[in-house]
Amino acid sequence: MRVLLWHGWRLEGSGSNVFTARVARELRERGHDVLLLCQEQHPERSAFIDAWGTVDRGGVSELKPTLSKRAAGRVIALRPLIGPVLPVFVIDEYEGFDRVERFVDISNDELGVYLERNIGALKTAAEWHGSEVFVAGHAIPGPVVARRAVGPGRYVAVVHGSDLEYAITQQHRCAELAREGLEGATAVVGATGDVLARACTFAPAIAARTRVVFAGVDVGQFRPKPRTAALNEVAELLAADTETARGRPASLDAEIDHALVARQTTALDAFARQYDQTVPDADVSARLARLASYQGPLVGYFGKLILPKGVERPLEGLALLGPEYRGVIVGSGLFRDWLEALAIALDRGDAAAARWLADMSGMQLDLEREVPSGLLRRLDFTGFLDHRYAPYVLAALDILVVPSTVKEAFGMVAAEGAAAGALPLVARHSGLAEVAAALEDAVDRPGLLSFEPGQGATRRMVAGIERILGLPRAERSSLRQKAAAYVASEWTWARTVDRLLAAVDSE
Fold this sequence. Notes:
Elements: E1 2-6, H1 15-29, E2 33-37, E3 51-56, E4 59-60, E5 64-65, E6 74-80, E7 85-88, E8 99-102, H2 108-129, E9 133-137, H3 142-150, E10 155-159, H4 162-168, H5 172-183, E11 187-190, H6 193-200, E12 210-212, H7 227-239, H8 252-262, H9 265-270, H10 284-291, E13 298-302, H11 312-321, E14 326-330, H12 336-347, H13 351-361, E15 379-383, H14 390-396, E16 399-402, H15 412-420, E17 423-427, H16 430-443, E18 450-451, H17 457-469, H18 473-490, H19 493-505
Parallel strand pairs: 1-2, 1-9, 2-6, 3-6, 7-8, 9-10, 10-11, 11-12, 13-14, 13-16, 14-15, 16-17, 17-18
Antiparallel strand pairs: 3-4, 3-5
Helix pairs in contact: 1-19, 2-3, 3-5, 7-10, 7-14, 8-12, 11-12, 11-17, 12-13, 15-18, 16-18
């Protein structure tokens, strides 16, 4: 079968990016001929891509082959030439564009140009490929691009959640485009019933055509490993990665400290532009090697370092938990250095500085009059770790906290953590609540792996961490095994593609 996947961004770093890449890879392994339209600037680095090029209304460029291993099918990646402006849901660094702007902030003319160039590229690519099946990512803009390029009734739409929260709920223009695109789809799929119900509020006509298609986990990569072995192995891998030289340098800590003391918000905003957000920290190999010998409680966070993800919760929680606990923050984002500043304030027990950071940024802290000090010596940030490295760090954790304050479609990181042997502790709302409930059912412990969001959430999260780690070691080990086994059985990319193809067949 000839399948065209439209996705507007990269193939790593966010749940929708990973979803698109893994679906393409699984389809290739099954013998399908996949054409992947995305804005990945380095498709040659992806082992499942067989050739790549660019596309616009004028045609498809000459393809460049990669060194990928042969499979039953193939994936060709084409990058639509859309001009200098890339619309996004959350501001981040993207190579190859003069401007990266939120959908809600670009002008009508800029949005029109963006849509028209994608429509032309999709139409050209589909004719060139002879595509039989179309899958369009995000409620906006993939479905409306597909509808205007190939017509209604010819594509499946995938809702990912960020489209709803960062564009459609915020702007009538985006909501109307989403309605047009979703109502033209033969099926609308999403990772949980919650995200599909939210999509139906904007396009009620799609209710009978919605299908739950869980996101998957690469259980060959994300699997339990002993902590010491996992961290030593990933430290060696990172030591050989020359790209870490572009990552965040440890010397930046002193500049952040100065900006915090001087209360300089512009400086805190600017630091993230001084290093490459897409690679691990420059000193991460040494940090993880030192952590490998630690045998006490280890709590972590894995994901984007942006305000809506609630990363301040595990930082404040670690300060409250006390000296026997250590933490690891895995991820990248333009909010990274605000979080580093918060860690400095908490390290000093400086509640005034922490409150200033919260007031200036919107972080949700449950600060009391006094804050325990001494956080930095038991906290490690890693920077961005892709799927070559992240599974090792997750395997080393006792608990993975998922504290997001924004509505989520699924919470892929919770599933990945569980697969790697880290018990997830999840904020109980939106699609995250469905993920938590499924894992709690799998281990037969209602309420163990989740906490209520909102005011006081940090204290409830801390209580949840202490509750889990207060269980006997053998019981915790059994729970980890049950959670990992559930993910390996139910939330795999093979199951994801089975469900996606069933949605396609429902046409």
